[in-house]
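Hi everyone, sorry if this is the wrong subforum. Our group has a chain we'd like a structural model of before ordering constructs, and none of us has done structure prediction before. Sequence below.
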Amino acid sequence: MPTTLSALDDFCLYRETYDKLKESLADSPLTPYPKLQEKLGMQGSLWIKWENTLPTGSFKWRPAQACLNALTAKQKQNGVISRSSGNFAQALAVSCK
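Answer:
Right subforum, don't worry. Here is the predicted structure as tokens:
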């Protein structure tokens, strides 16, 4: 039977995942991008997050780490396989090291 998460459950799951990842996360810088903001006619500030500074050059590193952290010790002993050969698979491989 499928279960649904309430907003509070969802937040708690997010927070738990963040707490597990924060030790291994490298900060990716945020920089203002006023020229693009002006070109788009945006009010306020536009900031760019440079995910290409993460270990695999993409944001997929965080979800790969989160997936591995969610595995039990027994599951980890069995190993992991990815159907992807893209950014997620690369992030998973790096995260397994």
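For your construct planning: The chain has a mean pLDDT of 79. The helical segments are 7-21, 34-40, 61-70, 73-78, 87-96.
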